[in-house]
Sequence to fold (415 residues):
Amino acid sequence: MSHEPFIKDSDVIDGLNIKYLKFFGLWKVINDYRTTGNRNLFIKFKVFLTLFLAVPYVLCQYICYFFIKADLQKATILNLHSLPALHICWKILIFWLRMDSQCRLLGLVRKDFIKVPKEKREAAKEIYEKITKTANLFCVAAFILDSSVIIIAILFPGVSVDYILYHTGNVFDVTTGRKKILAGWYPLPINESPYYEMVLVYEAVLVGWGGMMLAVYDSLVCQSLMSLYAQYKVLGYHVSTLKIDSHSRRTKNGENNDSEMLKELKVILQDHQRLLSYANEMRSVYNPLVTIGLGIGIGVLIIAAVQYLFGKTGDPMFVFKSLQFLASEGLEVSIFCFGSSYLEEASSDLHFAIYSSDWYKAGTKFRKAAQMMMIRSKKGVTLTALKMYPISLETLMSIFQFTYTTSALMSSMIE
Fold:
């Protein structure tokens, strides 16, 4: 990776809250890699600890079917917790393997990314502040939801060890045995001391660390997406305000000279080309993240919905936990879908922004350049899943509809 400039707090677009990335050390990781091209010790420790905690849990849950009895209902409970653990492993591996691209993409948070003239900077600031409010709201919601999941899970363990080891069917029918935090099986006598206590501590650490890491990386994705959206909006405002009256100059023979306007359009074209390259890189980096993330998200949504339907006649705390999982995974899926839709809107709106300028009054060179930019911006930019399926709000609605239909079908099968 060629070295990128260090991003200072004063460089960040107006209103964007990066305190979560700074508090959890990710901001320093990004800046160190941008300036030196090396991964610092902190990110190495984070990757090691995340995999060290999550991988054994995931492996145990997928080999447990050879050692304990399981039906469809019990399998859904086991997967309800193993899928998020698998998800955080995938997220941190993608960050590690594609760190060069993701650290470069964070350059989008710079407020000088788009070269805006001084007289337009105040209006650009207002655009940035409006968009960053939405980005900050997503990040706050992610941390609140994930923190609540962690706290409730640790304070109110709800899965009986006896149910995991010896029973199938409805979890509420088993009232014996000590309670665990996660619905997990291990190749240990987990119903005996000190193994039960060891497992309880392990699961508490796994839930706390994994839940926070999911929120941190959700924030990173959200801020990258919303920053690209903000840069497109500012560029659209900039090009729409290109007017002959404010750029016209008189030559000695009295003819109009719009060379200043043409120079400004050339800078805009360069900025647009940079945005396109960043958008393509973001699509490349986030495609595996979106593909697996949506797949795991759909799985957790379906399982949480099924558990909610069963819990309606059981433990109220179990119902609340299921709703928490639904909300947390729904938000994560929403970040991708909303961000992609915003991005598509802003990138395609460039076509109309150029048309709003005085391109038709300008000289031939300006008109040709403006028409070329209109053609290039006609198709909006979106994230994709499986490299071919665009992600949008329609995708989100389809996911929720599929979740409802599948969970209802599974519920009827179990009954």
Q: What stands out?
A: The first helix runs from residue 19 to 23. Residues 40 and 342 are 34 Å apart (CA to CA). The first strand starts at residue 159 and ends at 160. Strands lie at 159-160, 179-180, 249-250, 256-257, 384-385, 389-390.
